[in-house]
From TrEMBL:
Species: Vigna unguiculata
Gene3D superfamilies linked: Leucine-rich Repeat Variant
Identification of the protein by name: NADH dehydrogenase
Signal peptide: none
Record-linked InterPro entries: ARM-like, ARM-type_fold
PANTHER family for the chain: ARM REPEAT SUPERFAMILY PROTEIN
The organism's taxonomic lineage, starting at the top: Eukaryota, Viridiplantae, Streptophyta, Embryophyta, Tracheophyta
Region ranges (Disordered): 39-58
Amino acid sequence: MGFGLLASKVLRPTSRLLHSSQNPTIFLRTIVSKPQLCNPQASAAQREQPPRTPDELSIEEEAERKVGWLLKTIFFVTAGVAGYHFFPYMGDNLMQQSISLLRVKDPLFKRMGASRLTRFAVDDERRKKIIEMGGAQELLNMLSTAKDDRTRKAALQALDALLHSDEALASMHQVGAVSVIRSVPNSLEDAEVEGFKLSLMKRFQDLRYDVSS
């Protein structure tokens, strides 16, 4: 009985408002704009509270800002720590996946893998890592079997990004890189193919490797 009496007191103002309004849209707007109609006891309590002074409002706003900055700081610190531990492993996995794409027969996937390796090869540490994973050898295989200029260009561009150190050039010279690069036909449609080819040949030549045909 106590619960029924309480429910009737709470719902009575709302029911009167619903009966007085034939338009449901107007009823919903009234409820949203004037929630005290559904809870007259809460609205009475709010009216009894003294108005807050400007100083109190300023203190509350400052506290909200500090809490917001604290939450942002915690988020960025947590993200930074997670990234520091996680991204190196993720980078190695992406490099390995890119090298795996070079082994697919479809030239499109080969070009995708070569393009990714080009973007990864931004410093000596990553270049060395890619070469140790077999990326340079797979690019050389891709270049030797390429049937179109776009695929040759992607392979040459990736090799151009990888082979910067004397050690890398020496290891690729031992597996016949010079003969493979030299045998790449010149492109009449894309001058960059010839540009990457000449750049690589010059690096071998600067280290006194025989690049003559």
